Amino acid sequence: MNTSQLENILARFSQLTLLVIGDYFLDLYLDIDSTLAETSLETGLEAHQVVRTRTFPGAAGTVTSNLRALGVNVIALGVISEDGNGYELKRALAATGVDSASLIASRERATPTYTKPMRDGRELNRLDIKNRTPMPHVIEDEIVTRLRDSVSRVNGVIVVDQVQEANCGVITDRVREEIATLTRVHREKIFVAESRERIGLFRDVIVQANTREARRATGLQDIEACGTKLKQNNRAAILTVGAEGVLVFDADGCTRVPGVRVEGEIDTAGAGDSVCAGFTAALCAGASLPEAAEIGNLVASVTIQQLGVTGTAMPAQVIAMQRTREKAPSRN
What we know:
Elements: H1 3-11, E1 17-22, E2 24-32, E3 38-39, E4 46-47, E5 50-59, H2 60-69, E6 73-77, E7 79-80, H3 84-95, E8 104-105, E9 113-119, E10 122-123, E11 127-129, H4 137-151, E12 156-161, H5 173-185, E13 190-195, E14 206-210, H6 211-218, H7 223-231, E15 236-240, E16 246-250, E17 253-257, H8 271-284, H9 289-303, H10 315-327
Parallel strand pairs: 1-6, 1-12, 2-9, 7-8, 12-13, 13-14, 14-15
Antiparallel strand pairs: 2-5, 3-4, 9-10, 9-11, 15-16, 16-17
Helix pairs in contact: 1-10, 2-8, 4-5, 6-7, 8-9, 9-10
């Protein structure tokens, strides 16, 4: 794919609307200045002094932020609480232009939150708030209803199954089954799923996984064997293999899409979500699977250069990365 082809695909992104269903977290950054440290009179322990707080949509919200930066219209479907963190999450989504009207707010659930203390630019131990009890059936019913209502209004669906505990997040067994049913009803739509712990349970969608997730799901070590097995029950499978890029598994077999070389310090947090956003949007815009994977790689190559925050990439940055790559001497 050359720059002109890339530009043509990216130009169609603003005409797309994607539904992102899954686990929305609030990413709460606490910036600590170590020079201001105090000692607690009560405990004798060091008291970190927070000089700034920053909030961003996390997990499924990382995907929506990437999509919005690329110019894609986004509808969010997930479950939050009627609490302060839920308010901050909705505000963070609104700041990026995400349509959050389909988010379900319930006092029966906590707003999933990743609190990230950052001391002098480096992340300390993270503090997590998650739901560790099964999703109530009444909320599950509402998720399914809103999912059915939304699919006809979008070009594609991204499923983000972030919560490790089974049936405690948005993508319960029942919701996953409903997604499989909808993919068969709406064959013309693009459905892409990513899951930390259960990617092997999805059916009739395009699945995306990293090497750990793929090996866990299949019980296999050879990564190409993993991709072949994941493809069997799905439309296609793409496996992210770090700096080596992406492996695409479809009816034609396995296609290796090389990674984009990046110099200097990098932060790979959220890189898979960046690939997912770029890949899915490109597919919805008419790209082939390998072309879409290449665009996903380009998006991730921009975001991983943004340190201390889960980054995003705008079309101009993606195009600039492609031009840089075209000018680079061949390593062959």
